[in-house]
Amino acid sequence: MEKKFKRTLITTALPYANGPVHIGHLAGVYVPADIYARYLRMKGEEVLMIGGSDEHGVPITIKARKEGVTPQDIVDRYHKIIKESFEEFGISFDIYSRTSSKIHHQMASDFFRKLYDKGEFIEKVSQQYYDEEAQQFLADRYITGTCPHCHNERAYGDQCEACGTSLNATDLINPKSAISGSQPVLRDTKHWYLPLDKWEPYLREWILEGHKEWRSNVYGQCKSWIDMGLQPRAVSRDLDWGVPVPVEGADGKVLYVWFDAPIGYISNTKELLPDTWERWWKDPETKMIHFIGKDNIVFHCIVFPAMLKAEGSYNLPENVPANEFLNLEGDKISTSRNWAVWLHEYLRDFEGKQDVLRYVLTANAPETKDNDFTWRDFQARNNNELVAILGNFINRSIVLTHKYFDGKVPAAGEFTDYDRETIAEMVNVKSNIEGYLDNYRFRDAQKEAMNLARIGNKYLADTEPWKLAKTDMERVATILNIALQISANLAIAFEPFLPFSSAKLRSLLGMSECRWEELGSTQLLATGTQLSPAELLFEKIEDAAIEAQLQRLEDTKKANMLNEYKANPIRENIEFDDFMKLDIRVGKVLECTKVPKADKLLQFRIDDGLGGRTIVSGIAKHYAPEDLVGKNVCFVANLAPRKLRGIESQGMILSAEDADGRLVVITPADEVRPGSEVK
Q1: Is residue 110 located within the same domain as residue 121?
Q2: Is 70 strand, coil or helix?
Q3: Domain count of the chain?
Q4: Rounded CA gap, 502 and 537, in Å?
Q5: Residue 660: how many other CB atoms lie within 10 Å
Q6: Degrees to nearest 5, angle at CA 286 with 281 and 288
Q7: Which of 62, 122, 137, 379 suits a disulfide with 238, CB 3.0-4.6 Å?
Q8: Facing residues of 216 across strands?
Q9: Domain with 144 in it: what CATH number?
Q10: What pLDDT score does 74 carry?
Q11: Do residues 284 and 220 both lie within one domain?
Q12: Same domain (yes/no): 102, 224
């Protein structure tokens, strides 16, 4: 029998404060968490939704060093951007705080100290890379070198981003310090480790036997880790940014970010509720749900529960509905490559359209497998679903009521069998949505809410009140009463998903509140209720707006190619006399045509100052023939003639290959006489 709880604590993965929030974060964590929190609040349940910025760790120190500022400057900047973006987007945190706060430092320090005093840690000395020039130990991200798997020369000490392989810093070939560029040396250093192997039997029973209802991706990843055998994990780092390790002899060491960050859920709760926070963390009648992405499953299902169990007084999570990853236009979202749709930029570019993005991200939620966000799909879902289905039904219902009944809800007469069938379908939607939301299936739940709008559209299309208005106004009154009751139900059904649009709809319908228990009722709007004039809930998104976003991504892709471009190695040296054998000249293009049945070839007639010559060049995919006529180009004049597609080519036009594979013809900067030698 399922356990009943008095209250629900919702935590959301702490976004890393070295950049803004993007749509991958929203789809994976914050939109589903917000839907669930709003749903429970509508049911009148006691709910707390906790969030905050993760502000410690190596990437922040790297970014600060690159920009010549302090780590605090970095986290202050991005915490502000993230917090304000969440507020504008309608993510309804009860508190959104940060791990650089005094209360968090104290709580994380106390948590470590309690485990330390209980003897829950193992002290171990290991070898770690040390930069003798910078006089500091190097975190894995401060070490670069050649990947032993794919030979990418810019792999990090924890991962090769070219092939995706997880690495240890000692795996790298020719390791270099990212701080000084020197070759680091291995030195002994002492750290504290949480012995996860000690908790393996408990975790095996608690997860694999006690939580078989967890999502298959979560359960499967946990099982894989446990079956491989859990190992002790370091909880401290040699670093000067973070929560200092609170024991004697730990100078220059801080709590590892994975250890201190989840304690942020607790410290943020205490910051909000200094007197009653323990009720949310230690009362067994509180249900705790972690909303995270799949990259955090191990930390929230194995590591954090082991920490809480070792401490001894905290609840463990009841469920961890982790999502998979959301890709962007078929490619993995990447902060470092700027391949993302950033929330603060979306809010600027699509002002007032928070609910459109919420709807699309929920419709494409990567709940059990990776999914893809495309701007064309975003446009189609807005235009074909929000506008054409939901918005269209609401607008027609209100417009017809104003046309025939002065905008007042008409009284319903006797119901027909079809009326009763429609109402029954409406009532069923409530239980369907609840069933999905209670099991964290937000994509299906939203689909059910949209089905209610489809029911309404079909009802109006089938009954055709605009035709009946000529002969039977009593019947029209009944039809529009039912249509308006469906509209009021839509305001309730979509409240967790589209809070801004639901609030606007309630205002149009004269509804003062929105309670979940009323979903399915045919008495939400009293007869005679005055409706506001019709307003569009959604508007079409035109092609130009989408083209602008696609162009931005294309510009990003080109910039990445240039940044990542690595020139080919220089070929073997040649003697000066060999170079002098080349006769490179300037010629003017007199004619240029495509070679028939040859996609890559262009045929040139060149004025070479010596009577002219023909050259065939493989640049047809990079230039239109007419763009080259009249240009001066550089060519090799003394290359032995050869036939290409039956045409004798008397030389070679010189081109440079760009980072994206584009060929650019070499031309002199100033006008020179055809036949001039290049020296």
Answers
A1: no
A2: coil
A3: 4
A4: 9
A5: 11
A6: 70
A7: 137
A8: none
A9: 2.170.220.10
A10: 97
A11: no
A12: no
Range with the poorest average pLDDT among 117-126, 133-142, 324-333: 133-142
194 and 85 assigned to the same domain: no
Please determine, for residue 565, whether its predicted confidence score (pLDDT) is greater than 70. Answer: no
Same domain, 102 and 123: no
The answer to whether 645 touches 598, Cβ cutoff 8 Å, is yes
Q: Tokens in use for 237?
A: 């780092």
C-beta separation of 476 from 404 below 8 A: yes
- The string of pLDDT tens digits covering residues 493-536 is 999 999 999 999 999 999 988 899 999 999 999 999 999 999 99
Whether residues 302 and 287 share a domain: the answer is yes
For the stretch 79-100, pLDDT in tens is: 999 999 999 999 999 999 999 9
Q: Retrieve residue 106's tokens.
A: 């104290």
- Residues spanned by the domain of 153: 117-233
The identity of residue 663, as a single letter, is L
- CATH number of the domain bearing residue 455: 1.10.730.10
Return the CATH number at 306: 3.40.50.620
| pLDDT surpassing 70 at residue 72 | yes
Which helix (H) or strand (E) is 460 found in, with range? helix 442-463
Whether residues 134 and 94 share a domain: the answer is no
pTM confidence score: 0.84
* Residue 676 domain-assigned (yes or no): no
- DSSP code per residue over 394-415: HHHHHHHHHHHHTTBPPPP-PP
| Mean pLDDT, the chain, whole residue set | 94
For residue 208, give the DSSP letter. I
Q: Which residues of 56-72 are buried (b: 16+ CB within 10 A; e: fewer)?
A: bbbbbbbbbeeeeeebe
Quick one: 211 and 156 in the same domain? yes
Residue 594 sits in a domain whose CATH number is 2.40.50.140
pLDDT tens for 180-217 read 889 999 999 999 999 999 999 999 999 999 999 999 99
Q: How far apart are CA 92 and CA 70, in angstroms?
A: 31
With b for 16 or more beta-carbon neighbours within 10 A and e for fewer, the 132-168 pattern comes to: eebebbbbbbbbbbbbeeeebeebbbeebeeeeeebe
